[in-house]
Structures are given as structure tokens and as C-alpha cells.
Design goal:
43% helix; alpha/beta; six-stranded parallel beta sheet; 13 helices; seven-stranded parallel beta sheet; single chain
């Protein structure tokens, strides 16, 4: 058996894929071979090959909130996906399999259990989806982004690591300056029209109250042109900057005294590591909503405020921003993150994998 090979599986969204790639890079740096199994249609199909890792696809599908016909089709794909995964793992002979969530992880993780290959899970959110709830029964260990997720699993299997982030987030302590008066607005990788519209509505009044404030606004590609047109001249000139997408997010976090944005697991985890106070606007989703759970978890520690979309959203977001954009308030909020940090999640997860290889 190759004692330095890991199969990583999962995806669909960046929230699953980016932590997986961070782990893959760390394992590669330690001399491991990486194989990644995902779907042909998820974000992993683009991001994994771009990162230079061998990528394989397997068919599966969702069962939650689906028609009977689609559920039957999913189980048909799952059956053949398990057979394909058994053959794939038998050929690759990895030391371990790591599932990072999403329905695509199910056939590969089931195959690992059948073949008695050590199975690990990485759960990003404080609430847990159907796939990882089921697979948690089969896993050797589950690496938790948030300790509250332990309630969905056998607690003896859970290891509190925090979410794995890019190495830059662990390379240095990040000083926080509550007096910087730098407001960072993030709407997720695709942007958020609701956040964009609300921000543009109250920024003139924000600039009037906070004379030295600077704003950076990540708009998303769809709204960038319209936002750009609406923010020329006073009071935006020399105090406001916008871009459709941000590549060097750590540099912006470093400047920020307050962040307004969505509450996906990775954004929340980055803010925990950086210690930046936030106003979270959870993405509105029916049923299980990870972003709402994540947002209120941070709020319960005093490090964030939550403003949900709905009636009066723009007025409520303005009121909250104007109230907390004060150095004394922000400094107190930043201190709330201390109880949420676990250290270097990449190192903790990779060390666990290394111990399997040695044994």
C-alpha cells in the first residue's frame, strides 16, 4: 500500500472545495500524493485541475426536497457510483479518504468504509447537512470547523480544529486597529444585490457621520458596472473603492475595522482567525440554513451583529452600522473571537493523517 496517498472527495460549492484544496496543498507539501473525486458540474471541476491535482468524476445527486423521480434517479446513480468508487479505491490503494461534504462525497466515502480504508470527514458549518450526518456514523474522525456541530455526531469521534484556511492566515499574528475607520463590504464570490443596494442607500449618511472613513466594496461581477456608475463624485470620491471580486482578501481584512458580509463557513472562519468584527447578512435560504446558524453563533460571542434580509433591511443595516462603527464598540467585539480559535487547522488535520500513515 502507498502510505503517502489520500483521496479527497466532495464539493459542489466553494465552501466545500476551498477547504479541501487547502488540505490538499498541505498534504502535498508533506510528500503525499493527492487524488480528488468530485462531480463534473460543481466548482471542483474547475478549481481542482487549476490547482494541479488529478481530478476524477463520479455521478450522484441530492435527495432533499427532490421529486420522487429525481430521488429514484439519485439512488440509481449512487449504486453505480459506489461500484465505481470501490474499483477506483482498490486501484489507488490510498492510506485514507477525506470527505469534505456535499452529496458527491457519499459514494466514495461508502466505498472507503466497505474496503476498510480509514475515513475522515471535515465539516465546515455549525449545522450539518444530510450527507455528513449519515457519513459521520462510518467515519473514524470528524474535523469540526465549529464545536457546535458535535451535537450531530458521536462526540468521541470529533476533533475541534476550526476550518482549514490558506496558509497565509496562520503565518503571522494580525494586529487589529479599531481606529482605522475602514469598512469592508463583501457579498460573497457572486456578490449580493440586496447588500449592494442597501449599502449604496446609506453610504452618503455614513460618510457624513464618519469624516475619515474609507470603504472597500466587493460587488460581484453582475452588479459592478451599475454600482460603479452610482458611486462617482461626492461623497464617494477618494473615500470609496469597489471591485467585482477580491483575490487578496487577507490584505483587506488587515485594514478593516468592520466587515459587512455573508456568513458562509469560510468567511466566518477567516474573520475568527483575523479577529475582525462583523455585521452578518445571512444568505436567505429555506429549510436548513447554515449561514444563519453560523452568524448567530458568532453573535452569541459578541463578535458580530446579525441583520437578516426582509422588511426594512436597508434601514436596519444602516442603524446597526452607524451604532457599532465606533472604536470602543469595535474593540470590544474583536475580543469576542478569542474563545473561537483552535490554532492551525491545516496542521492539526494533516498531523492526524500523518499518524495514520505511521500506524
Amino acid at each position: 500500500m502507498n502510505t503517502k496517498k489520500i483521496v479527497i472527495t466532495g464539493g459542489g460549492t466553494g465552501g466545500h472545495v476551498f477547504p479541501a484544496l487547502s488540505i490538499a496543498q498541505e498534504m502535498k507539501a508533506r510528500g503525499w500524493e493527492i487524488r480528488y473525486v468530485g462531480t463534473a458540474h460543481g466548482m471542483e471541476a474547475k478549481l481542482v485541475p487549476e490547482a494541479g491535482f488529478p481530478f476524477f468524476t463520479v455521478k450522484t445527486g441530492a435527495v432533499k426536497d427532490q421529486s420522487l423521480k429525481k430521488v429514484c434517479l439519485t439512488f440509481w446513480h449512487l449504486f453505480w457510483g459506489i461500484l465505481w468508487s470501490i474499483r477506483f479505491l482498490h486501484q489507488e490503494k490510498p492510506t485514507a479518504v477525506l470527505g469534505v461534504g456535499g452529496y458527491v462525497s457519499v459514494p466514495v466515502c461508502l466505498a472507503a468504509f466497505i474496503l476498510r480504508i480509514p475515513l475522515f470527514l471535515q465539516e465546515q458549518n455549525s449545522s450539518v447537512g444530510i450527507a455528513n450526518r449519515f457519513l459521520g456514523r462510518l467515519a473514524k474522525n470528524i474535523f469540526l470547523g465549529f464545536p457546535q456541530a458535535a451535537s450531530y455526531f458521536n462526540s468521541k469521534k470529533c476533533i475541534n480544529t476550526g476550518n482549514p484556511l490558506r496558509p497565509i492566515f496562520y503565518q503571522q499574528p494580525f494586529h487589529y486597529d479599531a481606529n482605522s475607520q475602514y469598512l469592508l463590504i463583501l457579498g460573497g464570490s457572486q456578490g449580493s444585490k440586496a447588500i449592494n443596494d442597501a449599502i449604496l442607500d446609506f453610504l452618503p449618511r455614513f460618510f457624513t457621520k464618519f469624516k475619515k472613513a474609507q470603504v472597500f466594496h466587493q460587488t460581484g461581477q453582475r452588479d459592478f458596472d451599475s454600482v460603479k456608475q452610482r458611486t462617482t463624485g461626492e461623497p464617494f470620491q477618494d473615500r470609496y473603492c469597489c471591485a467585482p471580486f477580491v483575490s487578496d482578501i487577507p490584505a483587506l481584512y488587515q485594514k478593516a475595522s468592520l466587515v459587512i458580509g455573508r456568513s458562509g463557513a469560510l468567511t466566518v472562519s477567516e474573520l475568527i482567525q483575523m479577529g475582525r468584527p462583523a455585521i452578518f447578512v445571512p444568505y436567505p435560504r429555506q429549510g436548513q440554513n447554515d449561514q444563519i446558524t453560523n452568524a448567530y453563533l458568532i453573535s452569541s460571542h459578541g463578535a458580530a451583529q446579525v441583520v437578516e434580509q426582509g422588511a426594512g433591511f436597508s434601514d436596519r443595516l444602516e442603524k446597526t452600522t452607524l451604532e457599532i462603527f465606533e472604536p470602543s464598540v469595535l474593540e470590544r467585539m474583536a475580543q469576542g473571537y478569542s474563545a473561537l480559535r483552535f490554532g492551525n487547522a491545516l496542521k492539526m488535520i494533516a498531523d492526524q493523517m500523518e499518524s495514520i500513515a505511521k500506524s
